[in-house]
Amino acid sequence: MKTLKLTACTVALSLSLAACATQTGQPGPLGNGSTGSAGGSGIGGGEAVGTLAGAGLGGLLGNQFGHGSGKVLTTVGGVLLGGFLGNRVGNSLDRGTIAYNQQQTQVALNNNQPGQALPWKSPSNPQVTGTIVPQQVYQNQQGQYCREYTQNILIGGQNQQSVGTACRNPDGSWTPVSS
């Protein structure tokens, strides 16, 4: 029951943060483009996606560090901080950059050795570059092959880092997992 309440609280906070996201037409952190990104090539929904993803990951991480009654505080703090950071990243990424990053993440998870970085540069926004560093493949309790990975995205000189886990699907693609 506590987990259900905590999950409901996390979702509510995530949606609240998404509502606060920068709207289309407002200047983004890297420029004054009409869509909220450098050069005006961004999308209006990137902030919401970044906010929700960041809030979800932040909440999961915060939940891992808290104990007892402090668990709720660390979870809420993780949601808020993750949502804020996710919003800033999402505000700067356009559709082409997001798609290219997802493609390069698949390449790194399929081909790179543990600890071997795959550098990438956005074909649609040269101010955005990054690296994807997959870790060792392991098998989870359901028998799926999974890998943790670290992403560093450099947006206009500011580095944003995230850590995730993806598991391999029967078709060979990788899907990010939340726990």
Quote the distance from N terminus to C terminus: 19 Å
Low-confidence stretches: 1-45
Q: In what range is the share of β-strand residues?
A: 15-25%
Portion of residues in helices? 40-55%
Report the biggest beta sheet as strand number plus sense, adding barrel if it closes: 5 strands, antiparallel
In angstroms, what is the radius of gyration?
Answer: 17 Å
Can you give the mean pLDDT?
Answer: 72
Structural class: alpha+beta
The number of helical runs is 4
Number of strands: 5
Morphology: globular
Which series of helices and strands comes N to C? HHHHEEEEE
Q: How many separate structural domains?
A: 2
Kindly report the spatial arrangement of strands forming the biggest sheet: 1-2-3-4-5
Please write out the topology.
Elements: H1 2-19, H2 46-65, H3 70-92, H4 95-111, E1 118-121, E2 128-139, E3 145-155, E4 158-168, E5 174-177
